[in-house]
Amino acid sequence: MALWYQPPPTLNLISPTLKLNSLRCNYNCNLSILNSRHTHVPEPEPVFASVKTFAPATVANLGPGFDFLGCTIDSLGDFVSLFADSFVRPKEIAITQISGNAVGKLNRNPLSNCAEIVAIEIMNMPEIRSVGLSLLLKKGLPLGSGLGSSTARAIAVNKVFGEKLRKEELELAGLNLEEKVSSYHADHSLDLKKLNFPEKKDLYFVLVSPKFEAPTKKMRAVLPLEIGMANFVWNSSLAVALAAAVLEGNVAGLGRALSGDRIVKPRQVPLILGMEVVKKTEIEVGAFGCTISRCGKTCGSGRVGGAELTAVAMINCEERRVRIGERMMEAFWREGRLKAVVVVNRLDRVGARLVDSKPR
Amino acid sequence: MALWYQPPPTLNLISPTLKLNSLRCNYNCNLSILNSRHTHVPEPEPVFASVKTFAPATVANLGPGFDFLGCTIDSLGDFVSLFADSFVRPKEIAITQISGNAVGKLNRNPLSNCAEIVAIEIMNMPEIRSVGLSLLLKKGLPLGSGLGSSTARAIAVNKVFGEKLRKEELELAGLNLEEKVSSYHADHSLDLKKLNFPEKKDLYFVLVSPKFEAPTKKMRAVLPLEIGMANFVWNSSLAVALAAAVLEGNVAGLGRALSGDRIVKPRQVPLILGMEVVKKTEIEVGAFGCTISRCGKTCGSGRVGGAELTAVAMINCEERRVRIGERMMEAFWREGRLKAVVVVNRLDRVGARLVDSKPR
């Protein structure tokens, strides 16, 4: 997925209505833009001495929305600080500090780390010639959040240059990125649509991440190449029911839709020790629905080959969160001898944002 | 599809979230109800001397919503008048008059006519023992409306008995019905969800019905048994985009979603002489999108083996309707030497309704 360039403010879906057009269009127009700019376009001056961005964690492949539906979680994500640094070679980004979760786990080889590649792709744009950047990353994700991290960096890099880089250029960077690190490239537009969950209603996510690494390739390998008509109709209408439930703020309906996928999750869940029991447990103890989220391209964790997994349950009140989290942790331990981290957070309604900036 | 029992007030989708549950539940609880009622339940007295119902035409299989998404068209449908008739044998329905379109085309063999079967199934319910009904049908559909007709009858029969028959019982009748006349039985719940198109916005349908009968079996035969993952993701997200566009009143988005199906329509459209050109034409002359609608189970026309077809274009203002209709008619004639009937109507926002009733 190439959601990174623009984080989902609430619940988002990729609108395929523009997919081919925008994808083709982006490639063509951007390549020509790049060529022309190579000679003519003036270099954008950094307009900020430093910027700090936050990108919330993303639950990807939401229920029946495999490869097109995700949402963001409040108060859980990555902070990226970035500043123009004359000690850094032009067009380069030096990661001067990594703090928070997953420290040491991050792969510092730029070509195997989505987040770095996104930033590098942007810095590689011809109009940027003499500026180098220093990057401070604070990982706030104890789980495979998918796309949060690279999103924050892309936004930060763009902010430094006063958002001179156009959406299409960020998209182009994202596409190049995907080709480099992804074993699977869907025909996706980067055009996002937003589904607003009603402001007046509450939606909480119980996120339980076992210490278990599912190899991305194995998780991909169990995906069916072909889907039977009955399951296709079922999942399509389920995805619509999910979207309608979101817009109505119908958490019960959302939960049912979340749990009802017949195509992807039934094949992936058995690969995760204890997950089947965890799913049952969540429903038993009053969650409205349960699914798994994983980092499709390992962008969030910045690791290639392995992806963290998270069991995601939805509830509409805080009371049950402790009990549900505990029961899910117990189930992972009992069934798979897996330790798990539990986080409960609200639905994020803002998305990736600039949290601080200092003008030059 | 089993939409018949309750027509979509505006744009509806079958919510699969309850499918298995409600389907199984309906079967079980109803069968037990029937058994128990067989001995204990008093016969419901007709509370109306006569009732008249209207069921608007239904555009079925809307765009990517194959077998789960449809909408109803204003001022176009079937009228059904029904009255308790002591000259009719108990538990029987006598069709005393058929007028309007498709007269003479209707199959009067109850077992091959959905509409009759629905009514008969209801009359067969054990609690009805001594009442016979006369039915007057006025067909208002020049096109394969799918489900309008049987809906009107089911509602009428129920009205006569003061709506004593429970939704589950009507559903059970619908399920029996489907098994009898359908060559294809999807695992569908009869639970409907409604997607409201904003009241303030206008939505018109240009419905062009060529004099062409596509054999239902042939149209079914071209359906793929298996669907590739990329097309599955595409169509699922397209269906969600369609639902979102409806709720937003975004006619342009709705049109794109309507036209974007990659799985069903691309296989069926070539079977209809001239349809490919008609689709292009509609878009060229300013329609927002185009699809085909056909009567999946031939319930609407009451004919088995053949189903009428309609090219459906969406517009948001009346001005272009004449031009678009004419161009579509021309295309059908030019490409396939097919005469066509054009009807332009608004989206129906009410659904099947009681239009008149006389108390006993």
Question: Can you walk through the features of this model?
Answer:
Chains A, B: This is GHMP kinase N-terminal domain-containing protein. Chains A, B: Keywords: Amino-acid biosynthesis, ATP-binding, Kinase, Nucleotide-binding, Transferase. Chain A is 35% helix and 26% strand. By secondary structure, chain A is an alpha+beta fold. In chain A, strand 4, helix 2 and strand 5 form a beta-alpha-beta unit. In chain A, strands 1, 2, 3, 4, 5, 6 and 13 form a seven-stranded mixed β-sheet that branches. In chain A, strands 7, 8, 10, 11 and 12 form a five-stranded antiparallel β-sheet that branches. The first copy, chain A, is elongated. Chain A has two domains: 142 residues, Ribosomal Protein S5, domain 2 (2-Layer Sandwich), CATH 3.30.230.10; 146 residues, 2-Layer Sandwich (Alpha-Beta Plaits). In chain A, helix 1 crosses helix 4 and helix 2 runs parallel beside helix 3. Chain A contains ten helices and 13 strands. The N terminus of chain A is likely disordered. The two termini of chain A are 35 Å apart. The interface between A and B is large, with 45 and 44 residues.
